[in-house]
Amino acid sequence: MDTATGLRLTDLPEDLLLHIMGLCNPHDLTKLSATCTLLFTLSQCNSLWKPFCQRVTNIKDIELGEFSTYKKLYTTLLHKYGSLIGLYQAKFGPFGGLTEVRYSRGRIEGLTWDPASPTDIEAPLKHNILFSLKQSTYHTKDVCLPEIDSHHGAVILGKKDTFTLLCFSPEEHAKAVWKDFEYDQELFDFLQTHGKRLRYRSEVLYDWEVKCHQQKLLCLSHCFDFSMVHQPLILPNPRDIPELMPDGSCPKQLVAPGLFKGSDNLRGIELILLKYVHEKELRAFKITGDGCVPSGEILFSHDLKHPVSLLVQEEHQFEDLFDLEYENVVREGPVSDIPMQTFRVPQNCQGDVPSDVCHARYYGQGADGGPHGVQNTPVHVVVFDPDTVGVLWLEHECLTLYKRVHQTFNQHHREGVQSVL
């Protein structure tokens, strides 16, 4: 009761009380509900807790799943684990992957996005549910691979929006995912038996041409403390493009940043993130790492000030590209003034050509990984179209193509989250 006016809470309309309570944050609302029976009863209303759930999940029509009220959904699950929703780069040893955490029907799920084909870069990414956090009788239940081979695991929250997935059956985990990718079971069994004596830069793995994903799945079964650390991954947006056209579009001589898939003869399909840094430099960061170039490292890069003007009309060799003077080619004008040019691969080049013309071609450096470590190697980065980038590896005499990933993912919408790349 207000002693000055003699007004009691029960004299106020419920709509007004609910409006006032709706101005509270979850912590204050919980404290307020403990003051009297009326406020406790009103504090159970879905209209008070649904906005909190919507804000965390970024979903307007949020489904409760097995939860009976929005208050239980928020206090039991979203209050602790809702901060995980977003996109991550997974890391374990040199390997890595793309993980998306989302809310779905009363659960928080971690999805791994992987190439659907070991060779076709046009194929869309496929996903498996890596883990699921759901309501149980006494606490949140953590489950690994709930749709493939359900077993126990644990999600450990870390600092700076990171989290670690602990798997309590790593060998079964690796075997289940291996089968889902339709890899050779005989090879997997052999590596399970002898793999602990092999280093992931071992020449034996190169001789066998064991793909990156096969090494990664093997790694899951017995290495790196059976845990996968996940760090936030922020996809670039149009504001990160260094030079825009008057209409706000990206010039044809540039490739807009984002996720791309590439095909490598040894590593198979790999995921990279193209991102501009220092305004004029494009870098390709590894999302799916391997024993040669670990995840998070730069695969190739180029400076926009160093285009290649090579109007080739006849057959040429890779040696001719080495003879070009890199130091003397510096362009100060706008990128949009670079003329389109004919593109022909050198003789004996390994790789298909998507077009006989390109919008721009740049000098760059690539990471050359092998059994003896990583070294820089000269490359030409070629822009064929807004969704296709080619890399000519001059020393290896091959061409690698990278295609844009068009799937959309949950992004971190909390303030203060920074990209790990």
Describe this structure in words.
The chain is of the alpha+beta class and 421 residues long. Helix content is 21%, strand content 32%. It is built from 10 helices and 18 strands. The strands form 3 sheets. The chain has an 8-stranded antiparallel β-barrel with strand order 1-2-3-4-5-6-7-8. It is flat, with a radius of gyration of 26 Å.
Measured as a percent range, the helix fraction is 10-25%
Structural class: alpha+beta
Strand content: 25-35%
Order of helices and strands: HHHHHEEEEEEEHHHHEEEEEHEEEEEE
Q: Can you give keywords for this protein?
A:
alpha+beta; eight-stranded antiparallel barrel; 10 helices; flat
Task: Give a brief outline of the structure.
By secondary structure, the chain is of the alpha+beta class.
Strand and helix map with partners:
Layout: H1 14-21, H2 26-33, H3 37-42, H4 46-57, H5 70-81, E1 86-92, E2 95-104, E3 107-115, E4 125-135, E5 140-144, E6 151-157, E7 163-167, H6 170-180, H7 185-194, H8 203-208, H9 212-222, E8 227-232, E9 258-264, E10 268-277, E11 281-286, E12 298-307, H10 318-322, E13 341-342, E14 357-358, E15 360-370, E16 373-385, E17 388-393, E18 398-404
Antiparallel strand pairs: 1-2, 1-8, 2-3, 3-4, 4-5, 5-6, 6-7, 7-8, 9-10, 9-18, 10-11, 11-12, 12-15, 13-14, 15-16, 16-17, 17-18
